[in-house]
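Task 17 of the worksheet. Students: predict the tertiary structure of the chain below and write it out as structure tokens. Keep your answer in the requested format; marks are given for formatting as well as content.
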Amino acid sequence: MIGAVVWFTGLPSSGKTTLARAVEHRLALERISRCVLDGDEMRPVLAPRLGYSDEERSDFYATLARLAGALARQGLIVLVPATAHRREYRQYAREQAPHFLEVWLTTPLGECQLRDSKGLYASAAMGPGHLPGIDIAYEEPERADVVAAGGEYALAIERIISCLKSNR
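Model answer:
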């Protein structure tokens, strides 16, 4: 298995991190070198002063994509749960990686709002919060490699592992 970037995209609270951690667990059982670059955890590390304007988001996702690509070129499977609400962000990440899989979590907005442990949707309801799916558009993938409904992970995990093993 060669290094690869697996980018998990979907609305906030769609289950991206949960699925990425489940894939990480499966890869660990198979003793495959991997890491998780969670967008929420990486933002203060890679861009501590950046806000959420279009330009700042673009800079953050470009930096995250370059880091993920560099780690994948070292032979790691890099799991990136990060909204990346624009197709151009995900396309740039694809261009940086030796092998790339786009995983789209299709969790409906209403369900994401119910799951919202960070209060993002409640904050967005109080005023402009620049939240994908609410204040700004979320551009759905045109041809995701794997599509998963939030919470229905078993088939998605198998598909991701299969794609990684076949270097598709």
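Marker's comment: The mean pLDDT is 88. The first helix runs from residue 16 to 29.
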